Amino acid sequence: MNFEAFTQSKYRTTSEPGDDCVLLVPGVMAAVLDGATDPLGKQKNGVSPGKFAAETIAQACTRLFMDRQNTKLSADEIVRHLSDELAIRIKQMGFVGSPSTTLSLILFLPDSIRLIGVGDSGIRINGDRVYRHAKLIDDVSATSRIAVFSILKQRLEDRDVLEQLARQAAFLGFDNLRNSDLKNGILTKDDIAEVISLVQSKFMEYGMANDIKDFLVSGIKTQNRFANLADHPLGYSSLNGQEPSMADVIDERIELSQIQTIEVFSDGYLGLPQNTSVADWEAMHRDIEREDFHKTDDFPSVKGSMSTEFFDDRSIVSIQL
């Protein structure tokens, strides 16, 4: 069994850590965890909430599954155990809110592997079979940011400033824009109404026009109210120390005899390469950066890239059996 792993902070200079975490215990488990970035940049003891959540769950997985009997627990028991451990650590650290993370986990069993997925990090088997739950709420946010970006690019030349303002509108929400440029006419009330209407129209089939408007005006900073909300289209499963929802949690077993390669990856990769090595994933990432730097065309995302930042942290574990 050969392992390759790579993780890269969103900051191009690597001067600051990202919120991803990679866990490797050869022969036992492999995982990628993507901590949710705090839109307000809050930290405790120099650690972001997302990084804290990802590392806490990674440590909890190590403790839990080093006892091989625990690989037999149900997905519900596993997720609840991990969530409870995170809740205890959140209280001990004094974080306000709910630091959260995804988890894409491979457990190596005697004759098979077990896949457990919470959130939108992914797992690919043999280069073609993908296990990943995409979040509708991210599609809503991306649609709004891209619409704002499209409006502002007619008025601003500096693409870094443009990206920062479009992100600000998405993360803070239209009712909380603190930048004077956005408040004083670069993004008008009519522009905002147009964006909200466009997003509502795109997702009309879900019958949640009012919820979409409320979300866009309050921003991604309030997104956690949809975490583990199983009965809402914008809901999604998350490890955040609160009552977990199992609605979209992945739990699969695959015989080892059927497996040649395993890849575990965070959503910092917006495509899937044809081949499976870390070099292949990085080459694909470079291609996407070149083709759609602002992530507004073929690879829409909640954030675009800037001269100082990639659009997101990224992590990949590639395993050959």
Note down, in words, how this protein is organized.
This protein has 321 residues and is an alpha+beta fold. The chain has two domains: 2-133 and 237-294 and 308-320, PPM-type phosphatase domain (Phosphatase 2c, domain 1), CATH 3.60.40; 137-226. It is built from eight helices and ten strands. The strands form two sheets. The protein has a five-stranded antiparallel sheet, with no helix packed on it. A hairpin with a 3-residue loop joins strand 2 (20-25) and strand 3 (29-34). Helix 3 (136-152) crosses helix 4 (159-172).
Briefly note the CATH topology name of the largest domain: Phosphatase 2c, domain 1
Q: Helical segment tally?
A: 8
End-to-end Cα distance: 5 Å
CATH top level of the largest domain is Alpha Beta
Average pLDDT taken over every residue: 93
Structural class: alpha+beta
* The named CATH superfamily of the largest domain: PPM-type phosphatase domain
Radius of gyration from the alpha-carbon trace, in angstroms: 20 Å
Total DSSP E strands: 10
How are strands sequenced across the largest beta sheet? 1-10-9-6-7
In CATH, the architecture of the largest domain is 4-Layer Sandwich
Report the sheet-strand fraction.
Answer: 15-25%
How many independent structural domains? 2
In this structure, how is the largest beta sheet organized? Answer: 5 strands, antiparallel
Question: What is the percent of helical residues?
Answer: 25-40%
Low-confidence stretches: none
Q: What order do the SSEs take from the amino end to the carboxyl end, as H and E?
A: EEEHHEEEEHHHHHEEHE
